[in-house]
Amino acid sequence: MALTITEENLRTLIDRLIKDGTRVIGPKRAGEMTIYEPLSRGAEFAPGPLPRRSAKEAFFPLSETILSFEKGKDGLKVDDVDTNAFPRTVLVGALPCDAAAPQVMDAVFSWDYKDEFYLERRRRTTIIGFSCTSADDSCFCTLVGLSPTATKGSDLFLTPLVGGGYSCQVVGDRGGELLAGYPELFTESATVTPVPPAEPEGTPVDLAKVKLWLEEHFEDEIWEEVADRCVGCGACAFLCPACHCFDIVDEGTEQKGSRRKNWDACAFSKFTNHASGHNPRDVQNKRYRNRFMHKFKYYDDKFGKTLCTGCGRCIRYCPVGIDIKGILEEIGSRF
Amino acid sequence: MNKSSEKTKSTVTIDTSGYEVATQEIRSEAKRLLTEKIVDAVVGYQGGRRGGSAVPVVITDPDQAEKLVFSAACVNNLSIYLTKAKKEIRAKGKLAVVAKGCDLRALAGLMGESQFKREEVVIIGVTCAGVHRAGTQPGQPLTDSTIAKKCRECSVHIPEGSDLIVGKLPPLPNLSPTEKELMEKLDAMTPALRWEFWKEQFTRCIRCLACRQVCPFCYCEQCLCDRGRPQAVDTSPRPSGNMGWHIVRAMHLAGRCAGCAECERVCPMDIPLNLLNRKMAEELKELYHYEAGLKPVEKGPLTSYDEKDDQSFIK
Asked: Are residues B162 and B28 in the same domain?
């Protein structure tokens, strides 16, 4: 016996959640692309292709106000953001490479400083992951320890079935709670035939060995070879499900304004520019090396995790074709 | 339903056999230039891991010339690597660059702006029938549906003025000018509707700055829009700052942009940025009979004063 939900009931579930005051974020069509966005009704839910940007913004928005200030007669008034007012959220339709990323980022956001903006959204969000059924030549989740059927990070995991509908696996407590709230939308089915999962191509790479190799090759010709052409934009970091660097800026006037937390990217030349004018990462290939090192060495050193889920977005949208999967395979061939 | 309509739509395939000829000629020329030490490095394209893909490469060893290719996947405008913003590439010494006709226009503009002198660069011009549009899976044939918008209206298939022109031009099909059509649609809108159109487009901007970073003319060491004290434009990816950023950029490129449309190609949010540049170029042509990139010009109409300039806007 398997727990299943029909396509129609899944849309009804989204409608019911919204009606009950839950914010539902899921893939939605926008022109030629799909983006994870708050849905206003179940009919908007558009599962299928990997959304253009990752689902990280459900927890870590592109830009968020972290306080606002205003000068008045009685002096300066500072308003903090009430994180308790963050909405209960269900993220539905996250593919394994997106669903797995928040668990990786939890480590950095709850390390020496507890980022309540991120953490409170995490506490209030249930993730309904989706099994992935199509891969292209940029996909490489299987090289970084995941797979198109990996349930890591999901609370509930749906697998598309031949003939429509989904089988449904409860992974975490929150998944069970969600299910318990709407039991009539789910049914037990005797037999189910899942749509075959995607089969990303690629040579398996031993990430522990990659890390060892990186430890010995901080200085190596490979960085110039692969990244002298880097133009220094933030497309890779901004589309990435695991990149989490941000900048804090004050905007507005002296009288009234906001302090905002915005995505930042290590490829930007200003990222490490010191006030003195000195920049320790003075050329572009050093900035790219940092991106790679952070994903496959530094983050592992610090938190025991790989900061990459193999979604391939940085490959598909790099203006100059920098190919992190190709670099991993190249390093794998050098052991 | 979609599939059947795709099938009935006739596909025009563009003959790219000339690209194989170009590839061979680029390889032998690059090898010669490096062997005879005429240049220290060649900026060209090489095949990537993904089947049929091509990525920018800088080679310094004559034996590496065999890596160079030219194909419909050679979308990049390599002229960016010649600007003063790319110190690490210029540090390699005298450069040769592979350039399509559209890229050559940027090279002419950059020479006019003293980024380099003509004699400092060897230009290997490639006869080009067109390249892929953004989002095309590498390796696809070049067709009516995979060709870039700019190539549908190309007037510079042969890069005149290069040191060497490689490849050969096939008979070219007549393709509908989709960007021109969109432009006309926008021009026909009321200002209020047009404003709505752009507001909607800019709302999607995530400020990854890919548009700026691939632009040959965005070589400023200190971009005004990165300034913090005082802040000229909000850096937050929010509607007001996004609007400010794109308008400042369009104005700064007016009379300089040579129309390579790289900004639009690389935008991960599909914002049709070249429409802004194209509009500026049309205005320049109308008001000053000026077209950027035809030849190196030291001072364009917006950086010089002439008594005959149109002054009808002064009321």
From this structure: yes
